[in-house]
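Subject: Interface between my chains keeps coming out wrong

I've been trying for a while to get a sensible model of this assembly. When I model each chain on its own everything looks fine, but I need the whole thing in one frame so I can look at the contacts. Pasting all components below, labels as-is. Any help appreciated, I'm running out of ideas.
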Amino acid sequence: MVTIYDIAKQANVSAMTVSRVINNTGRISDKTRAKVRHVMEELNYVPNAMARSLVLQKTNIVSLLVTDITNPFYTTLARGAEDAARAHGYKLLLGNSDEDLIKEKEYIETILSTRVDGVLLTPASDYSKEQLEALKRHGTPFVAIDRDVPGIVCDAVVGDSVGGARKLIDHLVQLGHRVIALVGGTFDVSTARERHDGYREALAANGLLYDERFVFQTGYRLHDMEQAVERLLALEPAPTAILAGNNLQALGLLQSFRRRGIETPGQMSIVTFDSLGYRDLIDPLFTTAEQPAYQFGELGITMLIERIEGRAEIQPRRKVLPNELIIGSSTSEPTAARTHN
Amino acid sequence: MVTIYDIAKQANVSAMTVSRVINNTGRISDKTRAKVRHVMEELNYVPNAMARSLVLQKTNIVSLLVTDITNPFYTTLARGAEDAARAHGYKLLLGNSDEDLIKEKEYIETILSTRVDGVLLTPASDYSKEQLEALKRHGTPFVAIDRDVPGIVCDAVVGDSVGGARKLIDHLVQLGHRVIALVGGTFDVSTARERHDGYREALAANGLLYDERFVFQTGYRLHDMEQAVERLLALEPAPTAILAGNNLQALGLLQSFRRRGIETPGQMSIVTFDSLGYRDLIDPLFTTAEQPAYQFGELGITMLIERIEGRAEIQPRRKVLPNELIIGSSTSEPTAARTHN
DNA sequence: CAGCTTGAAGTTACCGATAACGCTAAAGTG
DNA sequence: CACTTTAGCGTTATCGGTAACTTCAAGCTG
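Reply #2:
Try treating it as a single job with all components included. I did that and got this:
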């Protein structure tokens, strides 16, 4: 690999002069600059970012840690993050935690070791607190995205889960639903908690009874949905609609119902958060509180970089992005007489 | 930041001993090892990967450069790549080229500067040759994925585009279609060329006439599809089916047809490559030659790492992954009398 | 013309790790 | 007992840069 010393020797200048040319610092005569530039091209020189990082104590790398990049919400978020990072001259390191604390911890270790300038991450759960504290201990700036963690004071970009849930429930109630179940994530995840809060508030606001039996805390795998549906169908009175915790849960529920010959929205309406993309091809198109995924990533990275570069106010900033109610075809008026076969 | 010297001082040993403990090299007495380990924990020491990279001339970072991570094919590919990289102890740097040579070139520059150990990339087009040669010049191993570039001899993981196109056309012909158009990428992209080859071969094999007027080379934006549809509808005889170059083009075509009140598959059948995910919700579900996206990424990274670590045979390896014909609802028998309004 | 300023470089000391080499003391060998 | 091994660890150079300081010559001033 060719180094600044090779360039220096070839151009009959010192290494420092080469460094000055590269970084446009100090004063250099046009003649010297031209000569150095010429030699650099001739030798196909490319600066070594690692060496620079070592001395500058800055890598210009930020890390994005999501639960799963194949979830369309995070895919789009990642795209927004990458675009923003690139626009600011940063590189993006990607990781998937799969909602797994162990995996998340391993990534944090890697992140610390890599000395990235900052981290944008979706905490796996409230128990991610330990990892976030590790980041704090090491002075690595980070922005929590989508979810936040009680007891951790930090920059955050989150959605309006409570408001979204209320809008969705209101919509169902307006359609005539009176028995609405919630199948969401476990309450050690902030979004799941808040969506539950919104669900509960909306029921109250609409004069409906809140009943714990109609609330399911579950994982995001198909198996989890299968189990939830099993128990859900045994409920009395039978729910006519479900608020799903996220897009994947909505999908799992739908599949499970289909397998059992229960139609959506005919026999069971489903509402949820976010979308699965390709709005005009999905059928049924979920009625959803859609969050601006791209902006989550874009804004998250922007806030992170402001923090990194000391351009942010000292106090942590918390940005709540609004969601939009999209009426899809996964909801309809409840059927008067419904039989689960 | 705490360094091995801090550890060394605190533990009353030399820095080298600390290094030996970290890397499990050389001989260390159990007592010393324990003492060093203890101090490391106490001081929350995390090794500096940059410093290590500099001396070892190895970053343990690989770069993934795709055209657009939000294309579901690349999303899944990226997931496969990240999993494989992680499994081998590598970090993954992500980039989107947007099929843009300038952007691609900028990324390659960044990649070279970062001294990543290797690159997995989808070349924007045949003109990416210049960038790939730059990689070669600098001795950075890379694996071309999905597309390859004439004149560049390198490891590659590609799909069976010719075979896929033939399967798709055969399917259309079996349904009774006789006038089939091709709306694909421009021929400076290998997959577009090969899909065209398969299209042509399949027409011949089925005794159908190949006519250049029915072949459209175009970009991947909605606007491009709109234009293609415009011209396509003016053709005589009128096509009853289209082979789309990829999933996004199929989507664009479908949208354009819908806007014009032309139904798929009723009035126009569409076949394509890859999918848009969520197979059971997409309607119409495209009849497609689906490629194993996850494996593309997984295998690509594995080949890359074998190359990086010198475990690969000297000659470049080219792996062709098979696709699978998925019969969807975007195809049906052609309507006898069709009128484009 | 001495003395000062200033532009344009060069020198030196790190940044945080690892490898090669070398040293010392204890254990083994004949 | 003299001599070789070997376990265990330290010293030093190095990776490719950059910051801070120094040097040197030319130009300007009074």
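Reply #3:
Confirming on my end. Residues 72-87 of chain B form the longest helix (16 residues).
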